[in-house]
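The record is given unchanged here:
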Amino acid sequence: MSDAVREILADWRLPVWLTLSILLAAVVYLRGWLAIRKTRRQQFSGMRMASFFCGLGILWLAIGSPMDGFADALLSAHMVEHLLLMMVVPPLLLCGLPAVPLLSPILRIPFLRRIARWMVKPAVAWLAMNLTFLGWHVPAAYDFALEHENWHAVEHLCFLSASLLFWWCVVRPWPAAKHRLSWGILLYLVSADMVNTLLSAFLAFCGRPVYAYYLGHANPFHVSPLDDQTLGAVVMWVFGSIIFLIPATGITVRLAGFNSSGSQFAPTNATESGHLR
C-alpha cells in the first residue's frame, strides 16, 4: 500500500450523520416494503428491495467511504464519485419503487403532489439535471465546493436530487402515471448524453488544467493535473455514455421490435416490464 493511500485511509472518519441518514432511509423503506408486499407481493419482489439497498450502499460508498478522500486528491476519482451519484445510484433507488414505502404521508398532501408532478415533467427534469451537472463543473463552483466541505455536501445533494428527477422520467416507478413508450424518451436520453460528451471532450482535449484546486494542492499520487483531468474526462465520457445508451438501446428495441408473426408492434405500456413506464 502506497504512502498516499495510507494517508487518505488514516484521515478518513466515519460520517456519522450521513451513515445514520442512509440507515434510517433503509429502515423506513423496509418497513413500507413489508407493508405493501402483503397486497402487492409480485410487484414488490425481493429484487426491488435489493435494488434499493444496493443504491443506498453505493451512495454511502461514493460520499461516505474513503473514496471521498480520493476524490479530494484526484479529479479522476472525483468524476467517478459524480458518475456514481448521478448515473448509478438514482436508477437503482428508483427501481426499488421507493415513492410509497418512503413518502406515503407526503404523497397524501395535494399541494406537494402537484409540485412533484411538475418537477418530474421531462423538460423540467432534463434541465434540472443537466444545468446542475454543468453548473457545478464551472471552475469557480467546482473549486469552491472542494475548498468548503459544507458546500461540497450541497453539491452532492444537488447531483443526487436532480438526477433522481431525470431518471424518474425514464424508470417511472410506481405509482407514477402510466405512459406509452415513445421516441421522445430517446431524444431525452441521447441529448443528455451529448451534454456529458461535450463537457468530457472539453476536459479531455482543452490541453490545460481547468480546475485551480488541483494546481494549488499537492497531488499525493504524483499524477500531473492535466493527466488526471484527461483520465477523469475519459471515465466520465465512456462510462457515462454507456449508462445513457443502455436504456436508450432497450427502448429502441421495444419500439422497433417485431413480434413472432413478423409485424411491427405498437409501443407497449412499460408497466409490462415493471421498469419503464
